[in-house]
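Archive entry: two folds, one per protein. Generate the first.
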Amino acid sequence: MIESTETVSTHYIYHFFKRLTDIIVSTIALILLSPLILILSIIIWVQDWHNPFYKQVRIGKNGKLFGMYKFRSMIFNADQVLKDNPKLYKKYIANSFKLPEGEDPRITKIGAFIRKTSLDEIPQFLNVLIGQMSLVGPRPIVKKEEAEYGNRLKRFLSVKPGALGLWQASGRANIGYPERCDIELEYVDNASYWYDVKVFLACCISILKKDGAF
């Protein structure tokens, strides 16, 4: 089946303006937030003299892997600490790939603060500027989460992941699988420039209210 000229045109116009918005907003954000980025980097670094940034391998559009940046909110080598504790790791998997609020011994004091205020996500503006992520889209998943999407995985990965998304606007950590799949795919099925604006504003409200942030 061949798409109509109008549909193809609308598709390219949407992606053109979406990418243009990503570049403009992420550039401005990185410039304006540079003093805060410097301050947080120093605070995180001096607590244990390790890299203040954390890069985790995530799955991007069409299954392409990339390193997603965050401010480090956990102790150094936290991933290995989790894997070395079978009981904790089992609980992490059972709880939709996270630990209940207040039960993760890996989170530092400054880490708890930047998570609650979503400041740990600021470095993702770099991912957006590079083009690995978009400002708005489904949150990028890790490899072990692929199974949660089953035969809908290809559809989920058909769009670029976002720094902000419908799942975050709906309560993020308060919503686990399989409900999260339905929410993320709702965005995929309804993606448009004005829908992105609506989701972006809803996320801003959610962040200010600290919904599901821990």
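Generate the second and append.
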Amino acid sequence: MSYVAFLEKNWMMALVFVVSGVMLIVPFVTRRMSKARDVGNLEATVLMNKKDAIIVDVRETSEYENGRLPGAVHIPLSQLDARVAEIARQGSRPVIAYCARGNRSRMAASALSKAGFGEIYNLSGGIDAWRSAGLPVEK
């Protein structure tokens, strides 16, 4: 059986193979091209204490009210473009974006990069990882 005949018979399987491969590669490539870096709890704590990093919580209001990182500024991801000026005047400080698990904050980090911030970080694992490590949370 030739490759062409195999693909004709199993085109659906070949399509799934290609799509799943692309889905695995795209996040890796976008992370490598992004100005933002992922940081863990330890590095985020160092940035907060030594470099006075701005902490931006991009979760929705109901999530924010259930607890947040100490000193966090609340700007939901859906409002970030409109409200970025609130933190822009402090643009020389590093910015750490976080959400529940790190997905929305990765998008926020990209938006912050486009807004001109230079030193941008995404908290890996978000507030869930922060809480799991037993680190302080404000209410």
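Annotation attached to the second fold: The radius of gyration is 19 Å. The CA atoms of residues 68 and 138 lie 5 Å apart.
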